[in-house]
Amino acid sequence: MLWSPSETLSRSEIEAIQLERLKWQVSYAYERVPFYKKGMDEVGVRPEHITKLSDISKLPFTVKTDLRDNYPTGLFAVPNKDIVRFHSSSGTTGKPIIVGYTRNDMENWTECCARMCTAAGVTQDDVAQVAFGYGLFTGGFGLHYGLERVGASVLPISSGNSERQIMFMKDLKTTVLIATPSYVLHLAEIMADMGVTKDDISLKTGMFGGEGHTPEMRVQIEERLGINDTQNYGLTELCGPGLSYECLHHTGMHINEDFFLAEIIDPVSGEVLPKGCEGELVISTLTKEGIPMLRYRTKDITTLTYDQCACGRTFARMDLVRGRSDDMMVIRGVNVFPSQVEAVLMGIEGIGQHYQLIVTTEKYMDKMEVQVELLDGAILDSYSNLEKLANEIRHKIRTVLQIDVKVTLLNPKTLERTAGKSHRVIDRRSKSF
Amino acid sequence: MLVRQINVFLENQSGRLAEVTKTLGDNDIDIRALYIADTTEYGILRMILDKPEKAVDILTQAGFTVSSTPVIALAIADKPGTLDHALSILSQGSLSLEYLYAYVGRSSDDAVVVIRVQDPELALTKLEEAGIRVLSSEEVYGV
């Protein structure tokens, strides 16, 4: 099922649209945003130097701190009278970032989200429960507008109050659930506590985003809730949800290429990598009026593929994000993504799916501790079973990461549950070494 | 007959054991015997309680990882050589002992020895055939 005929254009048609829009976006940003003019002048590039798509590599990158440094609206291309909506991303350190949407931006964002909902199979026959937070977070409103556009019956319940979520889910026969993956697993736990099974609810599809999730987590979610788990991707800086999304075939996330231009770069050198290589995703907006973004470094590690999907869509697809270049920890010289540890833990029976990684320095050596919750009481019959479980976890992590970790088993429900992005890593290493 | 032993996972954190005993005390559950297997990392608390089913529910609700195991409680006369007799019955029957712990009962001169073996039903038969007194759950829970 397609929402827009644009989704099946040929590669040359897509590129023609992208080039035309890129030229417009670059000169628009150059003329209206001093930050872009200064950046381009410094490297001696002018808007008219963009004559083909690959010329984009001449432009400097934009990074998150550029938004913070220009807080609140220094990167806006229009005065506030043309802005109809603000959103903000809290960020864990320093000032938040603020983005603004013009009426056209809102229309384009809604179009992107409507395509995303349609790709997940959502129609006017669906009841969609939006358990994303509403407010400054783009997730709630983005999905809300897209779902309304395709005609679904939207329940804007927002996040939290899990018992009430489950009550509405049963009583309104919700068919589509929108949430972060970690909140979905939390809901599944509460459901089990309440004695509600997947046969008591009518869910058929999940549209999950706001944070990444591993294939193992997906298997758990699909089994426990009896749904097709679709993932989507977006960043506040670039519009929010609707940048890319999976269809029901799970072949990667289709990027709305008529609104966004994607590149993959080497996160260290900044060089553009050939098609098919894994690297950091860089996105340029093509139609943004409120806050244009040229070559925005997402910090997310992924791969792009360009062949047509079984669903008919021809837009480039990005793999599920493998990790973040800034989440990547270097432990004793080994690159470690929390998602790798998560994947190992998902495959082990008897423990919960929440975990925490604690990195410390002992005698100038990095140490990593993995904390997981012990759920299976049967193992307590013999002490050696308990040690076997801890050793199995240690051994499997060693196989994947090539490093030794300390495994700590905890009582159930002792690790923090969050409705939003979960904070899995605590790095206590001294930064001076 | 077999007696229920309750196992509780203990993180190596100060106060964890006290949380268990407080939860039991608040719910009017009496501890008949207890034994902790521990290393520097974790402990497993094994207990004989007067209300084992209720204890499992209460402790699970309180956030502990809990299980229950069938064990055998033997009445052993408090004099040299009697424990050896009971254990030799098990070893003659090739029944491997996982662990045991003992406590002194309140109402008799016998010591009570709680044993955990791989095949408790078979062990029970062998011990009873050999004339060793095996305590019923009423006797153990209500000591």
Structural features, described:
The complex is a heterodimer of chains A (433) and B (143). Chain A has 433 residues and is of the alpha/beta class. Chain A has helices at 11-32, 34-42, 64-69, 103-119, 138-150, 162-171, 181-194, 215-225, 338-346, 383-401; strands at residues 83-89, 97-102, 127-130, 153-155, 176-179, 205-208, 228-235, 240-245, 253-255, 260-265, 279-285, 296-302, 304-305, 317-318, 323-324, 329-331, 334-336, 351-362, 365-374, 406-410, 425-427. In chain A, helix 4 crosses helix 5 (138-150) and helix 7 packs parallel to helix 8 (215-225). The relative contact order of chain A is 0.11. The model of chain A has no long low-confidence stretch (mean pLDDT 91). Chain B has two domains: 3-68, VC0802-like (2-Layer Sandwich), CATH 3.30.2130.10; 70-141, VC0802-like. Chain B is of the alpha+beta class and 143 residues long. The longest helix of chain B has 11 residues, at 16-26. Chain B has helices at residues 16-26, 52-61, 82-92, 120-129, 137-141; strands at 3-11, 31-38, 42-49, 66-76, 97-104, 111-117, 133-134. The interface between A and B is medium-sized, with 19 and 16 residues.
Task: Tell me the span between the first and last alpha carbons of chain B.
Answer: 16 Å
Number of helical runs of chain B? 5
The chain-level mean pLDDT of chain A equals 91
The assembly state of the depicted protein chains is heterodimer
Strand order, largest beta sheet of chain A: 4-3-5-6-7-8-9-14-13
Strand content of chain B: 35-45%
Class from helix and strand fractions of chain B? alpha+beta
| Radius of gyration from the alpha-carbon trace of chain A, in angstroms | 22 Å
- Identify low-pLDDT runs of chain B: none
Classified by CATH, the class of the largest domain in chain B is Alpha Beta
CATH architecture of the largest domain in chain B: 2-Layer Sandwich
Global mean pLDDT of chain B: 87
Overall shape of chain A: globular
Q: Please identify, by name, the CATH architecture of the largest domain in chain A.
A: 3-Layer(aba) Sandwich
